Fold this sequence. Notes:
Radius of gyration: 17 Å
CATH class of the largest domain: Alpha Beta
Helix content: 40-55%
Largest sheet: 3 strands, antiparallel
Structural class: mainly alpha
Number of helices: 8
Strand content: 5-15%
Number of domains: 2
Shape: globular
Bound molecules: manganese (II) ion
CATH superfamily of the largest domain: Iron/manganese superoxide dismutase, C-terminal domain
Amino acid sequence: MQAETYPxxxxxxxxxxxxxxxxxxxxxxxxxxxxxxxTYVDNLNRALADYPELQKMSLRELLTHIETLPSGxxxxxxxxxxxxYNHELYFDxxxxxxxxxxxxxxxxxxxxxxxxxxxxxxxxxxxxxxRFGSGWAWLVSxxxxxxSIVQTxxxxxxxxxxxxxxxxxxxxEHAYYLQYQNxxxxxxxxxxxxxxxxxxxxxxELRGAK
Length: 210
Ligand code: MN
């Protein structure tokens, strides 16, 4: 499959807008996907419009070469390219059936690297709740399969050469404020029931692939 390049397009949600109820309601998802995420796509395309040499690069290539991009477009790609990448993985990393837990190789790795699912969940929740201001908490794997929890600020991404992201949780206020107001911890607790562990396991299997 050819990697997607400019102009980037808004990817539809892989589920219905009411499918993540009651954790995320339709209004929250419409604003988040149709407005916030779309704005990142539009602004990324606008930023790349005057740079034909960058229009051949995939989103991943852009994000792993931030430091070498022309200075006039670097910050716009970091913020809006990151915004596109992060939101696509966030929306794709959720699903509508609650109560699933990891299984197979990924479940074993969670036990090995965090002690247990319960201990992993505590650490992941802590990373999401303690992220000061806007940003994300991620579960990532290195090429050897070692798992880590990482936080990023704003729309920054982890080092994508070193880590394969398995999933992430958006802790910008726009992700939850309509429903949860200032109760970020309640939103994060609900989000655990939305994790698409099947897709996470697939990403784990493919770790290190470009
Ligand atoms: Mn968001």
